[in-house]
Yip1 domain-containing protein (Methanocella conradii), 216 residues
Amino acid sequence: MNFVERITGMITKPDETTKDIAKEPRIEEGLMVVGVYMIFSILAAYFSFSRVRYTGSIQGIEASTLAMYMMLGGVIGAIITVLIGWPIITGVAHVLSMFFGADGKFYPNMLTLIGYTAIPLIIVTIISIALTLMMPVTVYDFSQGMQAAKATYGNPITILSTIVSLLGSIWTAYMMFYAVKNGEKLDAKGALIVVGLLFIANLLLTFGSVILALLM
């Protein structure tokens, strides 16, 4: 399969496609998919902060300064999360797979396969950007603390975006199941346990703060 066929194949026939990638891993393709995801993640972070007008202050630091730091942090965080997250997730999946008798290679096989599983995240991020641009400009008052965060997370479009992100995570886990099964040469049960553990960890890291803000 060529690069385009692998992209479409990951969506339409992930089992067959991951077998093909495992036989002939091309790390530059995985890097390209992850790179595109990183670009859209940066745009998502930028647009997310641009749709909010910040007021108030924290310990004498004005809202405009805090907003600038938050935007820079969001953009830099997107870059670091994607670039560092890729090998970390691959490494964790590889180590966990060893407990089930894995016979795969971290590089380039698994690194390429896990890179391809970012395809759903690209689609989800594009949808999230579109939803963000539909939002009216909202006001976030730093002096209100968690109440301001709760109001932001309670926005209908924010809730819809969170649901879309959750669906994207499920889709990614579905692709990752085949990536781990065929890349590490595991049976379905072993691959399911490995991906299940990664999925639960992702939910806690990604949506934990949202749930906490809504409960408080």
